[in-house]
Amino acid sequence: MAWDLTRLTRNPRDTVRLLEVGERRGITIALVRGSDMDLSTPAGRLTASVLASVARHEIEQKSDRQRRAALQAAEQGRRVGGRRPFGYEQDGQTVRESEASAIRDAYTAVLEGVPLAQVAADWNSRGLHTPQASRDGSASTWTGQTVGPVLLNPRYAGLRSHVTARVREQYKDPRKARIAGIVGQAAWDGLVSEDTWRAVVEVLTDPARSHPGRTPQALLTGVGLCGLPGDVVLKDRDGQEAARVCGHTVHRGGASPASGGRYPTYRCSGPVEHLVRKAEPVDDWIGMVVVERLSRPDARLLLQRNTGPDVAVLRREVKALRKRLDGLATLLADEVLTEAGVRRESARLKAKIAETEQLLADNGRVDVLGPLIEADDKQAAWDALDTARQRLVVDTLMIVALRSTGRGTRTFRPESVEIIWR
Question: What CDD domains does this protein map onto (predicted)?
């Protein structure tokens, strides 16, 4: 007995088995919605087979309509329901600012090398919970494993993804499938720029990433630039061209081979290592320059706010753009982009970096520079800051480009550290 034949069989294999057993054992099917069918007779089996085929056809048509409707909604950027996305209200479009702020901070943190576990700890300390409760119904806390998929979600860049069966088959990892399934802009506002999101995707999906990244330990890692002459234009506070450089950031490297392993270095992060500089004298010089600048009588003028774009957003944008610029060599090696494609994307990113850096406003200077400017002993105040805070001060005050000192140079030359005041 069954309510309807579609409740009794779900696919052709079930129907064949039912007919075989019914014929062998003389079964009669009694349906609440439909006539009885005696499977011991040819007519009964024919009726059951035809009805099952018709039901299957209707199911397939319904499924096809649903798939087409879902694809159409995705192409139009619309959301089709589901669980409340973190950072948004139940409608999926209205931003929940308490969560959105944490998400934006997380993107910045990942680009700075902060581990996902540390991001999760920050979200938990803010009293934020995952949208999906635990099995026992209690609020669920964040872990590094649950933070990662959130940051990889295209919705936070204002992008709409639609994962088809073909995409799902091609990309076994559901995170990569969601990225590959992007069909266009979403109907809701993203929380970060697409460049920022893609830079974080490159970090979190890097095959060489066997463990979460570490917080930068060096003063100029990701902040200072390789000063080899290039096509990236650096402009001063008046918008005038100050220098043309390679544009890649520097990172803290191991000891120079020529040093006998005695000191760490700064190295260009680009595909060609243009620069290797002893790190300690550079850091000491930058510290002296910062203290001297903040000790001048006009230092308080640095705290004047303007009405420009939010400085945190712009700095996050610049870091994301530089991260993508540094990753172009990998895309070329993996044959994701051609040489011509790399040149076009490089030119676009460098132009965007220059434009965004020009837009960087002074309205974040009060929180960053205020405590140092107000301190009686500015050297002691600078020394008391941790590396992360010192990096923020440097990035707020100046653009630093490291030049090569030439072969055989053993003494530090201040002119090899080009400083452009913001």
Answer: Ser_Recombinase
Please tell me the least confidently modeled range out of 185-194, 276-285, 326-335, 409-418.
Answer: 326-335
| Superfamily of structural domain 97-130+141-204 | Putative Large Serine Recombinase; Chain B, Domain 2 (3.90.1750.20)
| CA–CA gap between residue 232 and residue 225 (Å, rounded) | 10
- Mind listing the pLDDT tens digit for each residue in 352-391? 777 776 555 344 454 567 788 889 999 999 998 878 778 8
Query: For the segment 83-101, what is each residue's pLDDT rounded down to a tens digit?
Result: 899 999 988 889 999 999 9
